[in-house]
Amino acid sequence: MFLHLAIFAGFTLSAEFINSFQILSVVVGLLMASVFCQELFLLHFHSTDHVGLEGHYHWLLQLIVFASVMAALAATCCQTSLPAALVLSNSVVFQGCCFMNMGFMLWVPKFVPKGITIGYCSS
């Protein structure tokens, strides 16, 4: 996945540097949509065994990534569409918030001392 993202970023950066971004914007949009499709594919198969609250969290993340794929395709087809651009930018922000929340939930409990219970009773 990271190689695909590096190819997308390198192609976009090179298109920007040679001042032909307007000509290659369709290719950049399709590469962006393919990066989101690969992310959705990996999330779907990673989330098959998650149940309960974590399963719902992964389902919500898949829904946000699917919105990113559709918005990237819509923004590629209709480059002057403000709603497509807004949905794309907001879905990318929501992805960042979801991943930041996941990192917060994974790392912060390691820093809480063992004797402290937060929000629940231990027996």
Written overview of the protein:
Keywords: Membrane, Transmembrane, Transmembrane helix. With 123 residues, the chain is mainly α. It has one domain. The protein has helices spanning 2-17, 25-46, 52-77, 82-111. The mean pLDDT is 84.
How would the blueprint of this fold be written?
Elements: H1 2-17, H2 25-46, H3 52-77, H4 82-111
Low-confidence stretches: none
Number of domains: 1
Strand tally, please?
0
Residue share in helices?
over 70%
- Count every helix, treating DSSP H or I runs of 4 or more residues as helices: 4
What class, by secondary structure content? mainly alpha
Straight-line N-to-C gap: 44 Å
Characterize the largest beta sheet: strand count, sense, and whether it forms a barrel.
none
Strand content: under 5%
Outline: elongated
Mean pLDDT: 84
Radius of gyration: 19 Å
What's the order of the H and E elements? HHHH
Give short descriptive properties of this protein.
123 residues, mainly alpha, 4 helices, 0% strand, transmembrane helix, membrane
Provide a concise account of the structure shown.
The protein has 123 residues and is an all-alpha fold. The protein has helices spanning 2-17, 25-46, 52-77, 82-111. Helix 1 runs antiparallel to helix 2 (25-46) and helix 3 runs antiparallel to helix 4.
